[in-house]
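cron nightly-structures :: item 1 of 1
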Amino acid sequence: MRVIGGKFRSRQLSAPHGLATRPTSDRLRETLFNVLATRMDGAVFADFYAGSGAVGIEALSRGARMVYFVEQAAAAVAAIRANLAALEIHSGFKIEHRSVSAALRRFAEPGPQERCAIVFLDPPYAADDDYARSLSSIGESADTLLTPEGIVIAEHSRKMSMGERFGPLERYRVLEQGDASLSFFRQAAETL
C-alpha cells in the first residue's frame, strides 16, 4: 500500500496488524482523488473508519489543509500514527481515537473544529447498519459538520444496496470499480 499522488507520492504505508482491515485499494483511491482533485486544495477532510489512515494521508498529500482521522481500534490508531511519523507529517491533522458515532456527537458540539468539505466513510463492508447509522447521523449533523458545498463519500461493496437519501443528504453519483463502489452524497438543494 502506498500514497498514490501529491507530495508524498509513492511512499509506502503500513496497515494495522492482526485486524480484519480492508484498506481501500490503490486503484480505488486513485479514482477517488482524481474525482476530488478540484476540491482538495486547502480542504478540511474527515476520514471516518480510518483504518491505516491511507485515505486521509492521500488527502494531505494532495493539498488538504486539515484531516480528521476517526478510528476506534487501538491497533489502527497506532498504524495511523506510525504512517504519519514515517512521512514526517507533524501538523494539519487530528486523530479522533473514538467511534464514529462519538466523533459525530463531538462535531455537533460548539468547539474549535472546522466544518468539512469532504467526509469519507468506509466501515467494514459487512456492517450494513454502520452505513445507515453513520450517514443518518452525518445528515443530522450536516449544518455543523459540512460546509454548504460539502460532500460525503461512502465506500461499500458493489453488491450492497445503498440508500438514496439520509435526511438532507442525497446520493448524486456512484462509481464502481471491481467489487467496490463509491457513493457520493450532498445536501439536497431544498435543505440549503
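cron nightly-structures :: done
The longest strand covers residues 146-157.
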